[in-house]
Amino acid sequence: MKKIKELTTDYHTRNIFAGIDMTGSFKELFRQAAITPHSIFLLCVRGSCKISIHLTQYEMDAGSLAIIFPGVYFQILGQTPECRFMYIGIAQRTVESSYMFSQTIEYTPHILDRPVMKLLPEISKIFMDGFMAVIRTTRLKQDLLNDMQIGMLYTQLLMTAYNASPLNAPGRNNNPYSRNREIVKELVRYIIQYYKKERNVAFYAEKMHLSPQHLSTTVKKVTDKTLTDLISSFIIRDAQAKLRSTEMTIQEIAYSLNFSDISFFGKYFKRYTGMSPKKYRNAGNV
Questions:
Q1: Lower Cβ count inside 10 Å, N or C end of the chain?
Q2: Distance, CA of 151 to CA of 160 (rounded, Å)
């Protein structure tokens, strides 16, 4: 199982890795739910599989593309014997240091909500050709890709996937350059940076030099969610993943998300999930 050894020994330290999974490397690597330090683009080219991304299960078959962000729990629950993947992984440090990251952050909530998409056959073929070009490039002894190029590759993959999504149909109001969308894009960047410390609407409004009312109204127009719910979605996803996939105590999880009072954390969690943290954790062990 040479490929498993290659993938598990040094992939954490590489800015980019790519390949074709011929030996079950990904299934072995992600047999248990784990946080990956990369953005992973996983294209199923044959067979089928069942995966879990941040505790939600998805089915993939030929022509399906999954996008797993850094810091998200990922697991391969099972796959057919003939299942084959093409994959590209780009390190979090490269993505976040790239100027292009600011051009893609607005798509993060969409991908988090719909991380698996079924591509049209002609689009799937384009992705396969693109993946193969990257795979061949990374196999060369000569290093042809610098950090800026890898960042641009990430941007191209993410934006092309978003545009190829069946839910992103022509006619939808998806102008990425509108002022309101620019505001939400910037807001999401701040939420990703600060949600573990700050839940206060006023904090984010001050960061963006906007009134809380204006910011809240803009978020509602663009996302159809309240600003509080948008912030909470990141907090709850993080808490759920830790409850199901780590040995952290509920108190430790509460502290990691800046809840000084475990009782308040419990009420907050129940408000958005309908159950207590303890009940949620126990339900996953049944």
A1: C
A2: 14
Q: How many residues does the chain have?
A: 286
Q: pLDDT of 10-40, one tens digit each?
A: 555 678 889 888 666 777 788 887 777 788 9
CB 83 within 8 Å of CB 47: yes
Half-sphere exposure of 98 (CA within 13 A, CB side): 23
Contact between 67 and 119 under an 8 Å Cβ cutoff? The reply is no
DSSP alpha helix (H) spans, 67-211: 92-97, 101-104, 108-113, 121-139, 147-164, 179-194, 201-207
Q: How many other C-beta atoms are found inside a 10 Å radius of the C-beta of residue 240? A: 22
CA-CA distances (angstroms) from residue 275 to 106, 236, 262, 281? 30, 12, 15, 10
Strand ranges, E, within the chain? 16-21, 34-35, 38-46, 48-53, 56-61, 64-68, 73-79, 84-91, 116-118
Question: Is the pTM above the cut of 0.70?
Answer: no
Q: What gap in Å lies between CA 149 and CA 99, rounded to an integer?
A: 11
Tokens of 45: 């080219």
pLDDT under 50: residue ranges of the chain:
1-6, 8-9, 98, 169-174, 176-177
Give, as one character, the DSSP assignment of residue 120.
Answer: P
Backbone angles phi, psi at 179, to 5 degrees: -60, -45
